[in-house]
Amino acid sequence: MNPLVTPDFGLIIWTTLTFFILLFLLGKFAWKPIMGAVKTREDNIEKALSSAKEAEQRMQQLTAQNEQILKEAREERDYILKEARTAKDTIVGDAKNQAKKEATKIMEEAKKSIEVEKQRAITELKNQVAALSIEISEKILGHELADKNKQQALMDTLVEDVNLN
Fold this sequence. Notes:
By secondary structure, the protein is mainly alpha-helical. It has one domain. The chain contains two helices and no strands. The longest helix has 136 residues, at 9-144. The radius of gyration is 65 Å and the shape is rod-shaped. The mean pLDDT is 86.
């Protein structure tokens, strides 16, 4: 028969003895270093995983902070734009009001100037009419007063008019 199928008693003993010796030697010299290396590797893997988790948490915090900063920056930008629009509207409104006041002032001054010029023209016209009337009167009186009788009659009429008034 085949010895591998039905092993001999001596083969079983020697195989068993070799197995236990190998087990003892491995346990004495190799098992601790192998287990230490496995333990060290396991610790390193755990540290790497915890570091990765911490890094992920830190990234989430940084992302949240960045979002908050962006939100605040947008709000501040909107506020500044709103203030700028308000300031622009105020400045434009003030400029319009100032322009209206200036236009009204200029119109009033122009009206006053026109009125003064009108009064001056009327006065000058009256003076010219009066001067012309006096000149015409002088000429008329010069002809009428050439006669003594006419002079006496005019004087009498003027005296009566003065007494009546």
